[in-house]
Every structure is written in C-alpha cells, then in structure tokens.
C-alpha cells in the first residue's frame, strides 16, 4: 500500500499504471508559511555564499537557481503574484497530462475546478521553493546499502534533501538494489515477486523515516516523498528498458515532492516484473529525460523544461580513492583527462577486491551518465558526510557543490601541506581534455613551434585570444615568439583553448648556468574561470610534468597571488621591483638558486602592446 490516497489507475500493455493526481488538499494558501521559509532560506543561502563563494559563483548560482532575485512573492509588504504565474507552463503540462490519463470523470471535474482557479490561490503547500525557479533542476540521488544506514543518518540525509529543495534543486531518489539483482539471478519468478514485495515495504519504510523528520505539525509537512512504481518497461521489439510515463516523475517534482523510484521494470516478453540494476535505471533516467527535454526545446525555442544537474551517489565506501592522497578520495576528477589513469591505479592492488570493484562500478557508471548529460556533475560521498549540517565548522559537500559547482577544496592544492585536508568525497565531471606538449630533449633545446603549427597541434590565433582575454591586455605575438623561440619547455592546452599554460626554459646567472622551468603564461578564458575547474586541471598537469622545480613571477598587487601562494612551496618579494616570485617542486632551492630566480624575474621583458 502507498502511504497516501492515490488517483485512478489505467491499464496498458497488460499491467497497471498509477497516475499521480493533484488532490484538493494539495492546493492551499501558504503565504504565511512562505514568508517564514523565505527568511529561513535567505539566511541560509547568504550565510553560505558570504563565507565560502566568490562573487562569480554567487552570480552563476543565482542565474541557475534564482532564489533571491525574483522569487519573493512579497514586495515592500505587497503580494507579488507574478512569481506564481511563472509556473504556467507546468500548470498547462499537468492539466494536459491529467485530462489525458485520468479515467475518473468526477475527479476530472474536481481537478478542472481547482486547476482553473487563479494561480495565486493554488500555491501547493508541498511545493516548497521549487515553484520559484522556471526550469526544473534535477539531482538524481542513488543510495547504496540503504538498509544498513542507521535511522539517524537517514534523517540527516533527509535534511540534506530538504535543503536541496530549498535551494531550487529537485531530487529524485533511487534505492540501490544491485545485491538483490545478483542474488536473484536464476531464481524463480515467484521468488523475484516476493523480493519485489519486500523491497516495496522497505522503500515505504524509508519514505516514512524521511517524512517523519518534518512532521512537526499535522498540516505543515516540510518534506514529502512518493513511491514511484510502474516507471520502466521493456517492449517486445526493444533491447532496453525505457520510461513509460514521464509524468509519474514530473508531476511530483513540479509539486516539490521527492520521487523514490522503484528499480523494477515490466517486460512485455513473459508479462512479468523484474529487478533492474542501478546502472540500468540511471541510464534509462538520464537518456529518456534528456530526450524528453530535447523534444521540448525543439518546440519551445530552445527553452529547457528541466536539466539534470547532479548525480549524487551516497555510498558507504565514499569517493574514488587516490594513492597520491594516501588512499583518501580524489577531490575532483576530470574524466576526459584522468579516467584511464585512475582505472589503472585502482588495479595496482592497494584496495580489497570488493572495494575496488565497487569504486570502479561507481566511476564507470558516472562516466556513462556524464556522456549523456555532459554539463552535469557527479558527487560520490558517504552517508555520514551526506548528512552533515552546513555550519562554520563543517561543510556539506553536496550543498556546497550546488552553491558553487566545485569541490569543498581545490584539487590542485599540494597534498603534503598540513592545511590540505584528506576527504572522502569526489566531485566528477566529464571535464575537458588536456593536450600536453613537453620538451623531452636532454639538452633542453625547447619545443619546435613550427612543427606544432604545421601539424595543427597549435593555433596561434586561439592562443593569443585566450591570453588577451585572461590578462585583459593585447599580446604582441611577434615580439613574444621572438623571445621564447627555442626556449619553450611545455605547452598545455585545455579543451578548445579554454585555458593554456606556457613554460619556458630560463638560464640562471650562476657560475655554471642551468636551464630551469619558468611558468611564463597561465591563462584561463573568463568563461572557464571558477567552477569549471580548468585552472586546477591545468595546474595539476603542470606540476606532474615539472615536479622537481618550477618558479614564476606575479605582480605584487595581483589578486590571484593568494591562489598562487596556496599552491607554492614559498614566495619572496623581488627587491626593487613590483614582482613576487613563487617557487615549488621537490628540490628546495638554495640561496644562490633563489638569486637566480630573482635575476630571471627582473630581466624578462613584457610582450604586451601599448
């Protein structure tokens, strides 16, 4: 049994579908409650953003999840009905779906009466803040071994789901049943149906736990969840499962209700229900939801109905482990650059076989999902971390990633520094590929730029453009190339010139002059700065190729110096100049070496026009 009254049902392909219906009780004026929630939300968001995020991240967040800009239905003490009317496209969708699928004429009359009332009277108490953003921003949350999570942790996860909704995110929950899928392999249909029934009871228990967290008052439920059955079907002529009725998800989401998706699919062949693996369910959700939104964009001038923003895996094992980080989790994974290396590392043997296989499973699944929804992010963390309250002392990585679209710490921070924490959460994105060209000659004679240009590996126009945009200056390319010719130690290019690094060989003034690596240009396109992680990805690649010694200079008033300082082994002011010199690497520089750094910083002339 479902925990609340359900609407009429219809049959299709020999099985029962359950269509969600807007009940009369759902429609109630909640202006008083909204005022309280708006103040609570404003305080929470402003506190977090003021303490952790940059202005750019604030702008990006509000652009995607416009919570504070146009959402307050109170304006100078007067009610503003415009923010409510923005939901018209969802109202129309719900009207059409309900009229299409409902078979109860009496219910249709009741619905028609309520759905055609003024929108200001139809603010559902269960919508929370989800009505305040035009495009639904979906986060798919997969919880592994949910039966083993203690009630306290489940309540903490419920509060995180609640905060996600308050921040404009629409969660969809999947309770992982991969153990059942494996255990039932080859079992009888009767045993499978028994396991499905058992899962149903456990799912309802999960829903009951998370809803009870907020049942302070009988008429003031703060969080609602709904079991979603009958969502997947495999037809006779298809080789995969697909979503049957997307509205089974979209209607609860548009009401601010958390759908708990059953990993059960109906097969036309044999007319039976079967358990689905979490991979099959997530790939079905990602593929079919994207296809549905793509069709909507074609008919609505490229306007999104919804987007999948996050895949959140709550797993007892936590993030993908890294040897470099002493078996704690990778902070940020750029799949297009790091996937193969990480897979190889997981097979080295520092993990138990079962743990390794589960981490590989999480990584491979996220890679497939992010190939479908390329702009989304993956988050892998533990139940204990997922339930953290967002306070001055602790940071919930899920909430933080929604607000900033990045990890709680930078992935390019030196691992060995005491101030760099070891975490158990990984942020995973499809990311950008990084092309690395390094001078490997024994005499450090430099890269042949002409060769790179001839084979199309280097585009000087794009190179100049990203440098100009990043530095907000006009590079004299002819003058610059004349200076660095035969001295280029490395060129690193992220994506389609979203970012570039140029390293040169510079000669010291020591008794025995030596060529040392100097970070000459580090440029990131303004569009790629911040949450995309391009700067971190490039800098990590740079350090992996010049791990022994590297130095660079920066103007003393450069606001980026704090970022440089956190990633360097040390910094010094170059006496008599406006330069600061930063250095890093395994080799600690001697006093004479530092003097060599200073001389190089002093003698390199800028190559800008004007």
TrEMBL record:
Residues 447-607 form the N-acetyltransferase domain. Pfam families: NAT. Pathway: Amino-acid biosynthesis; L-arginine biosynthesis; N(2)-acetyl-L-ornithine from L-glutamate: step 1/4. It is found in: Mitochondrion. Its EC number is 2.3.1.1. This is Amino-acid acetyltransferase, mitochondrial. N-acetylglutamate synthase involved in arginine biosynthesis. It is an enzyme of class 2 (transferase). Keywords: Acyltransferase, Amino-acid biosynthesis, Mitochondrion, Transferase, Transit peptide. Belongs to the acetyltransferase family. It comes from the Eukaryota.
